[in-house]
Amino acid sequence: MSVNILPVTYPFLTSYTHHTTTLSIITNHEDYMPWFCGNYIQLRVMNDLSSKAWLDFYSYLHKGMHACPFLDIQHMNLDTLRGWGSGIVDFLIKMIDLQNYVYVVVETSQISIYPSYQKRRFAHPIFVYGYDKTEERFYVGDFFKPTFEYSTASFAEVDAAFRAVSADDFGFNGAKIIQYNKKAKFELDLWNVTEMFRDYLYTRDSFGRYRLIQTPDPGEAVGMEHVYTRLIKDVEIHIDNPDLFQHTSFHVLYEHKKAISFILSFLQKQGYIGQNYGYEKVEEKSLMLRNRVLRYVMMKDPALPQQIIGMLHELKELETEALTALVRSLDGGGY
Fold first, then answer.
1. Domain spans of the chain?
2. In this predicted structure, which of 94-98, 134-138, 201-205 has the lowest mean pLDDT?
3. Nearest to 101, CA basis, from 203, 23, 214, 1
4. Residues 6+ apart with CB under 8 A from 100
5. For the chain, what is the mean pLDDT?
6. Helix %, strand %, coil % for the chain, to 5?
7. Alpha carbon distances (Å) from 140 to 40, 87, 148
8. Tell me: the pLDDT tens digits for 175-190?
């Protein structure tokens, strides 16, 4: 076979590659929403103000995608991959022919579609979902620009990028071999979805839900109160410090509201709720907030930080009102 491209759908959440990879695969199918509903409600953030916030959705997903029932994942470390006799190019082709997507750590300075090309070392996973032997290129996905996109990379560059990477360059080394599990079934657990909304809204500890498969990180905090407190502090203290201030956090915050709107729309279509409780206003406000942050990053208007802090307070109040009404509807008014 000279060309083989596995199916992908452009993900509607693009904050981090563990989300873009997962959603690129599972959204090709119709039955992922019950699982999505329980895994894209809670947020986690790092407590230590001397480090970056690393705001993200809280589920076992951010530890490596293994918790998604629609994905069968095998991890091959770097030494094992390098022991593959015919090299990384043949390995990737073989995996794709076996209907496997590959999420492999490479040295991006060796691949011309990355902004780091021939400028600085930066190891990162690249999502490989197809190949063209005639053109000698792979079909890949990653943040080749400020936003996630699909593109192509030559066999030669991918080979060089794999050869240049070291085992300690990223949070994991080697590759994750991912196959869609056609036999997987996941039914909506409305009680669990309601509890996750309550965990986020009331800043309740969600760590216990994953205690059997991971030890809670003492540096992490979950829930609305911790998230907004950390982001406000970041604006007050770190907004002019690129080593600590992550404007990505405000994109994650917006994508969280986007995900909640998507979940509410699904629950409404399924007849579990009768409205979205004004959450579309929360999503709109969060987009305005994100854009205001990006405007400051580009223009450094000294009036903007206080505006951003005010918008964070307003967004928190608006979201609290919407989710309080939602939870009362879902669970009959109990706290």
1. 3-30+71-180, 190-331
2. 201-205
3. 23
4. 177, 178, 179
5. 93
6. 45, 15, 40
7. 25, 18, 11
8. 999 999 999 999 999 9
DSSP string, 270-319: TTS-S--TTHHHHHHHHHHHHHHHHHHHHH--TTHHHHHHHHHHHHHHHH
Name the residue with tokens 């990006």. 294
Greater pLDDT, 67 or 48? 48
Residues contacting residue 233 through CB under 8 Å, at least 6 positions apart: 49
Band of pLDDT at residue 310, cut at 50, 70 and 90: very high
**Calpha distance 324→277 (Å, rounded):** 9
316 forms beta bridges with none
pLDDT given at position 218 = 81
Tokens found for residue 286: 């969060």
- Long-range CB pairs of 288-293 (<8 Å, 24+ gap) are 289/250, 289/253, 289/254, 289/315, 290/250, 290/251, 290/253, 290/254, 293/247, 293/250
Largest CA distance in the chain: 62
Q: What's the pLDDT at 143?
A: 97
Report the distance separating Cα 180 and Cα 73, nearest Å.
9
- Tell me how many degrees the CA angle 290-61-181 measures, rounded to the nearest 5: 125
